[in-house]
Design goal:
Blueprint lengths: L3 E3 L4 H7 L3 E4 L2 E8 L5 H19 L6 E8 L5 H12 L5 E6 L10 E7 L3
Parallel strand pairs: 4-5
Antiparallel strand pairs: 1-2, 2-3, 3-6, 4-6
Helix pairs in contact: 2-3
């Protein structure tokens, strides 16, 4: 089975040496993704837009996501993202983990990583 790499052109892809997503073994593995904006909610929505584009390029969507990891430097901000996340995943919620940790740049408030199963 072939491996497909999906690039989004994000600044860190070339600096660090990775791609936005890899399609392999029937799964889409989307790298940790940060978004733009002044608030955690705006960054969450922006990151999900980028992730959605990668999933679409792979032939999947948010309904196919089976696992998600949320990383935030301040866990108390996570609740602010719940409405955006509930709207995105709707009636197809994935297994999820939230981790409090440092991110690559202090301006980022949330990073999101997902794994999706390619539709049959």
């Amino acid at each position: 089975m072939a491996i497909k790499r999906i690039h989004s052109g994000g600044e860190f892809e070339s600096k660090v040496g990775y791609c936005r997503a890899v399609v392999a073994g029937g799964f889409v593995h989307v790298a940790g993704t940060v978004g733009q904006g002044d608030t955690v909610e705006a960054q969450c929505a922006s990151a999900l837009d980028i992730i959605g584009d990668a999933l679409k390029q792979a032939g999947a969507g948010f309904a196919d996501v089976v696992r998600v990891t949320y990383m935030l430097p301040d866990r108390t901000e996570f609740e602010n993202c719940w409405p955006v996340l509930a709207e995105t995943f709707g009636t197809n919620p994935p297994a999820a983990t939230m981790i409090e940790c440092g991110l690559i740049d202090p301006k980022y408030r949330i990073e999101i990583e997902v794994t999706a199963l390619l539709p049959a």
